[in-house]
Amino acid sequence: MKLYEKMNSGVYVIAEMSANHAGKIENAFKIIEEAAKAGADCVKIQTYTADTLTIDCREEPYQIKGGLWDGISEYDLYKQAYTPWEWQPKLIEEAHKLGMECFSSPFDFTAVDFLEELNVPAYKIASYEINDIPLIRKVAKLHKPVIFATGIAYPEDIERALSVCREEGNEDVIL
After folding, report:
1. Confidence class of residue 1 from pLDDT cuts 50, 70 and 90?
2. CA 142, CA 146: separation in Å to the nearest integer?
3. To the nearest whole number, what is the mean pLDDT of the chain?
4. How far is CA 104 from CA 1, 51, 88, 117, 126, in A?
5. DSSP assignment of 78-97, as one string?
6. What is the C-alpha separation between 162 and 77, in angstroms, rounded?
7. Cβ proximity of 111 and 52 under 8 Å
8. Each residue of 85-104: pLDDT tens digit?
9. Contact status, residue 82 vs residue 52, Cβ threshold 8 Å
10. pTM (2 decimals)?
């Protein structure tokens, strides 16, 4: 059964890893193992580097204010939080061993190209990327399921993203 058929056949549980691995591959493997034990169908990771998300700058606009990361630069936070690209084939393999799929949220073209080399079955577009039309178009052209997070999106943002997918002949879209 293809991934989009599984997703449309009932409840499909996606476990989000995000940066919860705390920079240790052992933690990432444990998260995948626990997700499988909990009955998840899939685990989702994120594919980016600090250099593709922001600039290495310590000036005020690039400093986080308040909360757990108060005073750290965006660049340093992303450098700590990212899932190293060399781990990703191993994480996908581990998910498959445990009967789960694994896909990712790419944040730029290089991430999409890398994930295509890994043959991920779907892509998730983060809500902060809902207006990155070139990224959405690149993903839509692959004709794989596209999952859009819509947390910060306005209705017109969602409609524009859906229109781009339709223009590229991709109707396998989940909001």
Report:
1. very low
2. 10
3. 94
4. 20, 18, 10, 13, 10
5. HHHHS--TTTHHHHHHHHHH
6. 31
7. yes
8. 999 999 999 999 999 999 99
9. no
10. 0.92
